[in-house]
Amino acid sequence: MEIQPAHVACVVGGGIAGSEAVARLVERKIHSVVFEMEALPYGKIELGLPKWHAKQRDQEEHKIDENLDSPYVQYVPSTQLGVDVSLEELRSWGFSVILLALGAWRDRPLAIPGIDEFQGRGFYYQNPFVAWFNRCHEPDFEGEPIELCDSAVVIGGGLASIDVVKILMLSLTQKALREKGLQVDLLTMEKKGIPRTLESLGISWEELRLKGCTLYYRRRAEDMPLVPMEGPSDPTKESRAKQVRQKVLDNARAKYLFNFKPCRLPVEFLAEGNRLTGLVFQKTSVLWIVFHVAVWQRTGEIKGQCTGYYFFFILFNGDEFVPVRWIIFRIILAVESQIFAAGLADQACADDQFITVE
Ligand SMILES: Cc1cc2nc3c(=O)[nH]c(=O)nc-3n(C[C@H](O)[C@H](O)[C@H](O)COP(=O)(O)OP(=O)(O)OC[C@H]3O[C@@H](n4cnc5c(N)ncnc54)[C@H](O)[C@@H]3O)c2cc1C
User: Whose C-alpha lies nearest to ligand 1, atom 49?
Assistant: First the structure.
């Protein structure tokens, strides 16, 4: 075996990123050592993708296996950087390069002070929740149990939030059917959807007496990042992306029967003892802000330098003009011409509060 003796690489993390980096090194006949904190590599593919993505997961895991299965690669399982080995130690071992391919495991915190105290007691972040769902059926699973309850509240708006509501709705439906003596396979139900599954069993949704979980999003359905807005801003593409987003949500709701509340921002929590029992939401509205007419120019002449302008802000609520909301606003811009631009802003309306209790 020919080895490029000048280099030995250290790769931390055996997910897609780590294993692809290793493959590029192998192409160059460079030896690498892969440290992975879990017994198996795969990362998000194994624990982050909900288990119904079986085909995609198998394909990706097979690719990772191929990348790591090389005489140029030394795989070191169950070794966590920062716990079993420090970065200083790794650096002192003389690797040519250390590549950190640790993934993104920290969920974006929910911005309500104190709410993290309730983690595991009525409050869960997406990453550990999906990892639990993927592994809870394993006989040797040692993680904390999670009891899924009806009427759960899900905060989010991206694809991961759709996965979470699907996990809840499928699991709750499966449990309700089991209580009626009917066994259904969750992965089959994921494919068929809940209405078709119930139809084939001759039972109605109402008979299950489930309220279903509710997805709360701070903006509108059409703003949900369910499909990316590609390339530079283009009104046609933008309008198409909005339609597709709405359709993705509508299809998911039709298939998994969850509730959806747009324009809701969680601002406070409700607790009983050490358990989180509910959230207080504020209603939000999406405003179109149009930078309109430059009415006053400080210098009176264009000099090719920073010039002060006054602008009127015309505020629209959705597509409707809101006449009471005229604001005069001073802004300094490093441009000479009149400006016409549009943007989106969330506005919290404190007078329209409501409470949702889990
Ligand atoms: C619900 C969901 C759906 C998705 N759907 C798609 C999709 O359809 N298409 C797509 O392309 N992508 C999808 N993704 C994203 C894709 O799965 C990830 O982007 C990708 O797997 C990330 O790979 P990674 O190697 O960067 O990180 P990870 O997969 O997170 O790998 C990082 C590895 O590092 C290890 N590690 C972390 N910290 C340490 C440490 N301190 N010491 C040692 N090891 C450590 C972890 O155990 C893990 O094995 C989805 C993700 C999720 C969660």
Answer: 43
**CATH code for the structural domain at 8-100:** 3.40.50.720
C-alpha triplet 217, 223, 343: angle, nearest 5°: 120
Domain layout of the chain by residue ranges: 8-100, 115-272, 281-353
Give the Å distance between the CA of 263 and the centre of ligand 1: 30
> Ligand 1 mean position to 58 CA, how many Å?
14
Token pair of 220 as six digits: 């509108």
| Measured CA distances, 235 to 175, 220, 222, 317, 345 (Å) | 45, 18, 14, 19, 18
Model pLDDT for residues 291-341, shown as the tens digit of each residue: 433 433 444 443 333 333 333 333 333 433 333 333 333 222 222 222 111
What is the rounded distance in angstroms from the CA atom of residue 65 to the CA atom of residue 46? 13
309 — phi, psi (to 5°)? -130, 150
Condensed to tens digits (0 to 9), the pLDDT of residues 10-34 reads 999 999 999 999 999 999 999 999 9
